[in-house]
Design brief:
114 residues; 4 helices
Length: 114
C-alpha cells in the first residue's frame, strides 16, 4: 500500500501572509486618511493644535510606503518641525496625536475584525 502525504502548510502560510499585508495596507490607508482629515483645518493654528493649512504640501505628502513586509506611514514634508517645534515656533503635534486617535481602529483592522 502506497500512502502519499501532501502538506498544504506552505500555501496556507502564503494566504496568511497575504491577509496580513492586506490588513496592514488597510490600516495604513485608514491612518493616512485620518492624518489628512486632521490637517484640513483653518489656515492658521495655535500651539498644540493640528497644523493649519498654508500651502497644502504637508497634507498632500501624507502617505504610506511598503517596505518588504512592513508599511511606513507618515509625511514627506516638514512634519518634524511642526511635531517638535523650533526655537521660533511652539509645537503643533499631529502625527502621534493622530496615531493615538486611530489606535483602537487600527488594532481592529489588523485583527481582521473590520
Amino acid at each position: 500500500m502506497n500512502v502519499k502525504i501532501k502538506s498544504y502548510l506552505k500555501s496556507e502560510l502564503k494566504n496568511i501572509e497575504k491577509d496580513n499585508m492586506n490588513n496592514l495596507t488597510k490600516a495604513a490607508k485608514h491612518v493616512v486618511e485620518k492624518i489628512k482629515k486632521n490637517l484640513s483645518g483653518r489656515s492658521k493654528s495655535n500651539p498644540g493644535e493640528f497644523p493649519g493649512k498654508n500651502t497644502g504640501k504637508l497634507k498632500k505628502s501624507a502617505g504610506y510606503l511598503k517596505v518588504g513586509s512592513k508599511i511606513l506611514v507618515g509625511t514627506k514634508s516638514h512634519s518634524t518641525l511642526l511635531e517638535e517645534g523650533t526655537k521660533n515656533m511652539l509645537p503643533r503635534p499631529f502625527l502621534f496625536r493622530t496615531f493615538r486617535e486611530v489606535e483602537e481602529k487600527v488594532i481592529e483592522i489588523l485583527r481582521g475584525e473590520d
